[in-house]
């Protein structure tokens, strides 16, 4: 799975997420199995996180990439035959998981919302493209 997106003109009080999940929510501890990228203002010093949940165990890995307004990002998640997932951000390998739960059918999601208690106002991202494919051996 991969996507290219551009953060909008304001990411104050915003949560942005993109990746493979079971439900369309930005909450980390919702799905027992998921792999996605996430930004939330005030969390992880404003840097993107690579989130993985395997059998209900959640891991948030710092990407060391600061989320910034009007900036393009290229996210890639590759799941290998051994069910390990590799997270890439702007071409840099960020994290490799242990084996994901077998037979989990993920759904690609991209979302943006206002943080709980955050100031109302326009929160926007531009999705430049999204692709997903499977290599059948």
Descriptive labels:
mainly beta, 137 residues, 0% helix, five-stranded antiparallel sheet, globular, 10 strands
Write a compact overview of the structure shown.
By secondary structure, the chain is mainly β. 0% of the residues lie in helices and 53% in strands. It has no helices and ten strands.
Question: How would you describe what is shown here?
Answer:
The protein has 137 residues and is mostly beta strands. It is built from no helices and ten strands. A hairpin with a 2-residue loop joins strand 4 and strand 5.
- Envelope shape: globular
Largest sheet: 5 strands, antiparallel
Number of strands: 10
- Give the helix level as a range of percent: under 10%
Radius of gyration: 14 Å
Low-pLDDT parts are none
Question: What does the oligomeric state look like here?
Answer: single chain
Describe the strand arrangement of the main beta sheet, using strand numbers: 8-7-6-1-10
Intertermini distance = 18 Å
Helix count from the secondary structure assignment:
0
**SSE class:** mainly beta
Averaged pLDDT, please?
93
Order of helices and strands: EEEEEEEEEE
Helices and strands in order:
Elements: E1 2-7, E2 14-21, E3 34-40, E4 47-54, E5 57-66, E6 72-79, E7 85-89, E8 92-96, E9 107-114, E10 125-131
Antiparallel strand pairs: 1-6, 1-10, 2-3, 2-9, 3-4, 4-5, 6-7, 7-8
